[in-house]
Amino acid sequence: MTTIQYRQVEVPEGVIDLGVGQPDASVFPAALLGRAAAACYATDASDEFLQYGADYGDGHHRVALAGFLTDAYNLAVDPELLFTTNGNSQALDLVCTMFTRHDDVVVVEEPTYFLARGILADHGLGAIGVPLDEDGMRVDLLELTLEKLASEGRPARLIYVIPAFNNPTGISLSAERRAMLADVAERHGALIVADEVYHLLDYDPPGPPPMSAWVDRGNVISMGTFSKILAPGLRLGWIHASSEILARLVSSGLVASGGGLNPVTSALVTEVIRSGDLAMNIESLRREYRRRVDVMDRALRANIPEGVTWRRPTGGYFFWLALPEGSDGESVRSTANEVGVDVRHGSLFSSHGGMRHHIRLSFAYYLDDEIVEGVARMGRALQA
Amino acid sequence: MTTIQYRQVEVPEGVIDLGVGQPDASVFPAALLGRAAAACYATDASDEFLQYGADYGDGHHRVALAGFLTDAYNLAVDPELLFTTNGNSQALDLVCTMFTRHDDVVVVEEPTYFLARGILADHGLGAIGVPLDEDGMRVDLLELTLEKLASEGRPARLIYVIPAFNNPTGISLSAERRAMLADVAERHGALIVADEVYHLLDYDPPGPPPMSAWVDRGNVISMGTFSKILAPGLRLGWIHASSEILARLVSSGLVASGGGLNPVTSALVTEVIRSGDLAMNIESLRREYRRRVDVMDRALRANIPEGVTWRRPTGGYFFWLALPEGSDGESVRSTANEVGVDVRHGSLFSSHGGMRHHIRLSFAYYLDDEIVEGVARMGRALQA
User: Is A253 helix (H, G, I), strand (E, B) or coil?
Assistant: First the structure.
């Protein structure tokens, strides 16, 4: 295979890959980004954003972002507690560089976003999963895990969670559990790394507040990103955390040398925030995805055999299907591939090869007709 | 100090900081970037660059960049051997993540770019310096160092060098030494990380070929960046290396999760390359900096007392002044600060507190009048 490619994921012709956890191009706001780009270069603001950037991120951007988040999170967000990132993957990578050493242990949700584990592994970190129930991570079991790790002389350094609309399950951590999580982590000296990537993609508001609401506790790193609310290609996001945590990130060699991250792109997005286009775009995404949830849910009910269960998601990108106990998601996936549809099998998301009788479907990458057709094919695969 | 800032470096009013190793805003090509931005959003190319990017970097960008480098480096550069980065600081950070472990040893030039050492330190890496002479790193001494390290059971993992116009000395590694370096590193199983940031800013061509010319040896990572030839705020650069090295970088969790780096910005720069504006901009920078070299050299000869020596740089950003033996660059800097001028003292660039009787001056951040005035103040400080 040549390495000259144009996108991260290229789905083979004729296949509907309901496994792709990415937005499709129909929701990319190219017109509003084009307007923002024109505005950027229309003044001498470029004297600033073309230069090495301020360590915490461009000041104009942080002020605009704080204003946006204060509304969107319904929570007073201080611009001085924001740090600009290249998106949540880079943010997690930097957190690992600055807050861990090889062989440290990280606690994650079981199941969790499988690609986050690759970032942990690059830093020599082991991942230990704590099960979820319908209210998110079992914080009681987390506490037992943290106690056990401490007694073994290898206290957990980080707790990585996706509090809203967990990937792959779509489950959110309840408000009560969030408060418990902050307490438990504090007692055990672990940092909470909250990947709040889907927080603003809620289709049945209001849900619990973001983990941002606990940053004053000093052990919470809330990571947000424009990837899912504007466009992934921007590679722009933010960390909201205490001034001590941000000071540590800013002391990194990466920032000291190259300056704050992504000044040109953050200037572009500043225009999008100021114009009100970001808030409008999120409203439009909610409408779009809410409809796709309905479409996929109806298609599943019409096509998927009895014994397979799922919960209708209230946000995020995913349906998480439980096949009958004893089924193997990976072999279901092989059968599905034969009829031109793909998904992701559950064990990908497990820290120990569990979740075998689950599969994850996304509605973010396809429009209605393909969702319907993809689910119909999936139904045939499950009946095969 | 508030953390709401707009640039990495803010020079206090009234001070001329000849220590700043950054371009000034007068050379930022805002107009051509504005044109490129308009071109980007004028077609449906945004369907690609707004999406998660191809792992190695956007294909269009890599093809355009390879064409540009083939001309600029006078060397056939294969687009499949290019990987898009967020600039050389991020590139070095990623190389450390993927090719080192805590407590590994990295060999650097003595002196070297002081902020690179921060990136190494974040990864738990120790730096050992090998002296330069007028032909760059003493590769004979490098070999002795590598032998000694190997005999101590801690073989060097990386050799970090700035082959063209080293920061801070302005010295370039000769063509003969480059070939020797590739051989020595190969014999000792060390990777060469060549920070070729100033390679294209040569004011008296032709110099030796870039370390890119040795990538087929399989142990050379050539890092290039648009920071100095277009604008730092873009946070865009590239790695040119063997397919095995690139495959390792692409296997990182960072890329697997977030996709290739900076698709939106690389699309912008692709337009700048295709239009010919990049090559034109570099010509314009060469003319500008060649003149500033003359201005600073004349000002130094007119103002700096006898016993202080320097070599007129033939590229890059810096003059490296040797004060009389026994002088202390740091205390000279304090005196200089009192008369409204700043520089960087030599020991910043040393791995072991050496280079004390040197100071580094840059001509990149100021126009002629301020260079002249700054050097005049420096002359007064040195005579104080």
Answer: helix
Structure tokens, A314 = 């209230």
Specify the residue for token string 């063209």.
B164
Kindly report the average pLDDT of chain B as a whole number: 97
Pick from B56, B103, B63: which is nearest to B255 by CA?
B56
Q: How far apart are CA A149 and CA A157, in angstroms?
A: 10
Task: Taking residues B84-99, report their average pLDDT.
Answer: 98
Inter-chain touch B260–A51, beta carbons under 8 Å: no
Looking only at the bridges linking them, the beta strands covering A105-110 and A126-133 are parallel
Give the per-residue pLDDT at B3.
78
Section B7-17 average pLDDT: 95
Cβ pairs A/B, distance under 8 A: 270
- Confidence grade of residue B1 (pLDDT, cut at 50, 70, 90): very low
Instruction: Specify the pLDDT at position A1.
Output: 46
Q: Are the C-beta atoms of residues A258 and B90 closer than 8 Å to each other?
A: yes
Would you state the structure tokens that stand for residue B309, as one six-digit string? 């020596």
Tokens, residue B314:
């033939």
Q: Which of residues 37-76 of A touch B (CB under 8 A)?
A: 37-38, 40-42, 44, 46-56, 58-60, 62-63
Nearest-CB residue to B56 (from A3, A46, A254): A3
Per-residue pLDDT reduced to its tens digit, B338-355: 999 999 999 999 999 999
The CA distance from B321 to B311, in Å, is 8
Q: Which has the closest alpha carbon to A228: A317, A292, A293?
A: A317
Would you say A75 and A210 are in contact if contact means Cβ atoms under 8 Å apart? yes
> What is the full DSSP assignment across B45-68?
THHHHTSPBPTTS-HHHHHHHHHH
CB B241 within 8 A of CB B235: no
Closest CA to A300 of A356, A357, A382: A382
Quickly list DSSP for A30-78.
Answer: HHHHHHHHHHHHTSTTHHHHTSPBPTTS-HHHHHHHHHHHHHHTTS---
The model's pLDDT over B247-258, given as tens digits with 9 standing for 90+, comes to: 999 999 999 999
Secondary structure class of B205 (helix, strand, coil): coil
Are the CB atoms for B123 and B95 separated by under 8 Å? no
> In this complex, do B4 and A63 lie within 8 Å of one another by their Cβ atoms?
yes
Bridge partner residues of A221 (DSSP): A193
Q: Specify the 3-state DSSP secondary structure of A90.
A: helix
Segments of chain A scoring below 70 in pLDDT? 1-2
Contact A19/B at CB under 8 A: no
| Alpha helices for chain B (secondary structure H) | 30-41, 46-49, 59-72, 88-99, 114-122, 139-151, 175-187, 243-250, 253-258, 263-274, 277-303, 329-338, 368-383
Distance of CA B144 to CAs A48, B127, B154, B155, B281, Å?
Answer: 46, 16, 14, 12, 42
Give the ipTM. Answer: 0.96
Determine the Cα–Cα distance for residues B57 and A1; give it in Å rounded to an integer: 15
Share of chain B above pLDDT 70, in %: 99
Q: Is the pLDDT of residue B2 over 70?
A: no
| pTM for the full predicted model | 0.97
